[in-house]
UniProtKB/TrEMBL annotation:
Protein name, entry field: RNA pyrophosphohydrolase
PROSITE patterns, A to Z: NUDIX, NUDIX_BOX
Keyword Hydrolase assigned: yes
InterPro entries: NUDIX_hydrolase-like_dom_sf (IPR015797), NUDIX_hydrolase_CS (IPR020084), NUDIX_hydrolase_dom (IPR000086), RppH (IPR022927)
Job description of the protein: Accelerates the degradation of transcripts by removing pyrophosphate from the 5'-end of triphosphorylated RNA, leading to a more labile monophosphorylated state that can stimulate subsequent ribonuclease cleavage.
Class of the enzyme per the UniProt entry, highest EC level: hydrolase
Motif (Nudix box): 48-69
Length: 165
């Protein structure tokens, strides 16, 4: 028998598409998903939960600081729609403390105003990421993010105006 998780809500979440001065996007490798032999690991955009009564614009800056060590950025814009995804069946009831079926996300485009030395993944005692790099926006849909691929495709189109030409 398969459990039905459709009654569970979506977790409110924000995501950051952080552009550098050259129009490239920061992606980071998940620390909790070790690189399998022959696999480059799972690279993704920074994202995180919205606290109760927290404004999404405030949440995205907080999440940047928590996940990549800096909030030295300005918000350029946001995707007009909330984007949602369901967790894959193997993660239902396990990921997100088993309280949510997936996430409902507000995505922001931000411009990084700092220096690469400000990006610090080692500030949190339990870092979410173990490596980072700048990539072109059009590579987002090719990242190994599984169930988030459709959202990354939408973002690659929605935020194209901020990308490197």
């Amino acid at each position: 028998m398969t459990d039905d998780f459709t009654h569970l809500p979506y977790r409110p979440n924000v995501g950051a598409v952080l552009f550098n001065r050259d129009g490239l996007v920061l992606v980071a490798r998940r620390a909790n998903l070790p690189n399998a032999e022959g696999s480059p690991g799972v690279w993704q955009l920074p994202q995180g939960g919205i606290d109760a009564d927290e404004n999404p614009a405030v949440a995205v800056m907080r999440e940047l600081k928590e996940e990549v060590g800096t909030d030295n950025a300005e918000i350029l814009g946001f995707h007009p729609d909330w984007l949602s995804y369901d967790l894959p069946p193997a993660l239902m009831g396990k990921a997100l403390r088993g309280l949510f079926r997936g996430q409902r996300q507000r995505w922001f485009a931000l411009r990084f105003k700092g220096d690469d030395r400000e990006i610090r993944l080692d500030l949190d005692p339990h870092p979410e990421f173990d490596a980072w790099k700048w990539v072109s926006l059009d590579t987002l849909p090719t990242l190994e993010v599984g169930f988030k691929k459709a959202i990354y495709g939408i973002l690659a189109t929605s935020f194209a105006q901020y990308a490197a030409r």
